[in-house]
Design brief:
The chain is mostly beta strands. It contains one helix and twelve strands, in the order αββββββββββββ. β4 and β5 form a beta hairpin.
């Protein structure tokens, strides 16, 4: 009987330790686009291929997808730079469902229009978030680290 009680207590201690580690674990990333993107297809994933920070290793620079390592609220932002006469409409999606839009529109303007969008998303472990072109094509997103995608667990 005492052994059963000790085992229950030990299991509870182990569970609390796991929860504490999950709370203390920092999850954040910062990525950018090194290559200019032109004439992308409808709903094509924007792959931010340069990673300068990836605490928790939740962002995959080969697929452009962030996978939540634990339940919680995550804060994301992304910036798109286009050029005069071009535009780039993108959206952040969670498991394929649109959450927010970004519209960087250089039509009728001179210079380099820049647009930043933000979304706080409640996620479950294993949920996925990424940036993709909207239902229009992505005409022009400037590379050379001007476009970026980042996120952090709050």
């Amino acid at each position: 009987m005492a052994d059963d009680h000790d085992e229950v207590l030990q299991n509870e201690i182990n569970q609390l330790k796991e929860e504490l580690v999950a709370i203390k674990d920092t999850i954040d990333f910062q990525s950018s686009l090194t290559k200019t993107l032109e004439n992308m297809k409808k709903q094509e994933t924007v792959i931010f291929d340069k990673v300068s920070l990836n605490e928790g290793n939740a962002y995959d620079k080969t697929s452009g997808v962030f996978t939540a390592p634990s339940d919680g609220i995550y804060s994301f932002s992304w910036t798109i730079l286009t050029k005069a006469g071009k535009y780039f409409v993108s959206e952040i999606v969670q498991n394929g469902q649109k959450v927010a839009y970004n519209n960087s529109d250089g039509r009728g303007h001179l210079g380099w229009p820049l647009s930043t969008s933000h979304a706080n998303i409640k996620m479950k472990k294993g949920d996925k978030v990424w940036i993709r072109t909207k239902d229009t094509t992505g005409h022009y997103a400037h590379g050379d680290d001007w476009c970026c995608f980042s996120g952090i667990k709050l």
